[in-house]
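Team,

Forwarding the record for the chain on the shared tracking sheet. I've put the sequence and predicted structure together so nobody has to dig through attachments.
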Amino acid sequence: KSPEAPYRAAAAQALGRLHARQAVKDLGALLADADLEIACRAAEALAEIGDKAAAKPLLLGLIDKRPALSDAARLSLRALCGSDPGEAAAGWKAWAERQGLGWPGP
């Protein structure tokens, strides 16, 4: 674990609290961070920002192989979009297609 990891996680949280829409792209990139805590905090921050543009990176987080991140992404999508098509990726895939967002996975 990187010594700066707690600071990066805290920065992600702060961006969410500030509703920093300009940070959606950077927070989306953090979903791929090797440090699971940072990735999960980024997912939570994306929901807090409240910009629908955050849905696309969260859909990518939803299909991540790390269960904690896919759970965080699902909860964040639910909070962001006010929708809950369930825990299965198939429900979210159908939702994403109805929203015109496309699906990031197979």
